[in-house]
Amino acid sequence: MDEKPFLEFNIEEIKDGQVEQLREFHKAYFNVDNIYQSASELKYINEIRQLIQQEFQDPNDEFIRYFVKQVYPTLVTAKVLEAFRPLIKRTITNIINDTINERLKSAIVPDEGQKKTPEEPAKSSNDDGNAKNIVTTEEELEGFFIVKSILRQKVQPDRITYRDALSYFAIFLDDNNRKPICRLYLKGVTKKYIGTFDANKKETKNEISGVDDIYKYAKLLEDSIENYLK
After folding, report:
1. Listing from the earlier edge strand, what are the strands of the sheet with 169-173?
2. Domain extent for 125
């Protein structure tokens, strides 16, 4: 038994990647061989991650030298290393910030496919209310992560997105209204439902007792994705 756990997570701040890993422990997907392989990979990934974080925060001489030798034309001395150390740290910070900004930009700026067309599923009149009245619940987010875990074999998880509304929680492919995957009806109701879409984008509601029941509709969710990948 290893002294260090191969997976640690904070249930109040769980990340998408951790949801994918935890999915393997669900009874519907449990496989000892797969878990063993994942544990082995995660052990090394965590160690490498720690090393990279350490180098980003306080790069050692070998790390600095690797880059300096490729851009500095003459002998790399200790004085040269010290001169380049703050430059490399600043460059790393800039790259991280640029990556974050690009991802934020892509999330904020809508693409052309998001413009409403006749094919777009009609919204409930309740959804025209003030956006500040919309509260995304933990149960809705849990349902979202379950849908992502089901569809990860079909598409990259970051292509699965959501938009919350007053009367339902909608999940799309590529944040595109024309590519609905499902709708979750979980808050403010006595009964809970999952709405799935067929090839003609016709919605069918199915009653569920909780978000774990979403797994029962995995095939329908996969079919929705397949319709957009053709």
Report:
1. 160-164, 169-173, 180-185, 192-197, 203-208
2. 113-229
Q: Does one domain contain both 160 and 99?
A: no
- 180 backbone dihedrals φ, ψ, rounded to 5°: -70, 140
Are both 36 and 130 inside the same structural domain? no
Tell me the whole-structure pTM to 2 decimals.
0.47
CA dist 48 and 60 (Å) reads 15
- Kindly state whether residue 41 falls inside one of the protein's structural domains: yes
Last residue of a domain, one of 58, 89, 106: 106
Q: Is 188 exposed, middle or buried (0-12, 13-18, 19+ CB in 10 A)?
A: exposed
CA 78 to chain centre: 43
What's the rounded Cα separation, in Å, for the pair 10 and 82? Answer: 38
- With respect to residue 27, please indicate whether it lies within any of the assigned structural domains: yes
Question: Helices marked H in the chain — which ranges?
Answer: 16-23, 32-57, 61-71, 78-108, 138-151, 218-229
Q: Which residues contact 179 (CB under 8 A, 6 or more apart)?
A: 113, 172, 173, 228
Measured between alpha carbons, how far is 191 from 184 in angstroms, rounded to an integer? 11
Residue that finishes a domain, picked among 55, 80, 106: 106
Residues 47-73 pLDDT 10s: 888 888 888 888 899 999 998 988 888
Angle at 155 between CA 137 and CA 45, to 5 degrees: 85
